[in-house]
Write a structure and sequence with these properties.
Helix content: 25-40%
Structural class: alpha+beta
Largest sheet: 4 strands, mixed
Radius of gyration: 14 Å
């Protein structure tokens, strides 16, 4: 029972720290102001993403954020379908979880 409670608490903490429906500029501003480094805070950004290594490198250079993962549940559910990449504006191929190490 303790393990189940710990798992649920971790899951709730992850969900509470995840921001969705943001533009690239909103994420960049939050990261640059260190707003995302406050714990508990919204340090992870689940966004529609078009896989592009050059754009990923540009984001890393511009605001030090990197892709943490492509969440399986959101991608299996097709959450990205019909959405535009938050960075390039092209059709999204995945939902990606961006964040920055502090």
């Amino acid at each position: 029972e303790d393990a189940i409670n710990l798992f649920q608490e971790a899951k709730d903490r992850l969900e509470a720290g995840m921001t969705t429906d943001v533009t690239y500029e909103e994420m960049k501003t939050a990261l640059e102001s260190d707003e995302a480094s406050v714990y508990p805070g919204s340090g992870l950004y689940l966004v529609p993403w078009k896989c592009d290594a050059d754009n990923e490198d540009a984001i890393k250079t511009e605001c030090k954020a990197t892709i943490r993962c492509y969440p399986l549940a959101e991608n299996e559910a097709g959450m990205h379908k019909g959405k535009k990449c938050f960075y390039s504006g092209k059709d999204a191929t995945h939902m990606a979880l961006f964040g920055r190490a502090f």
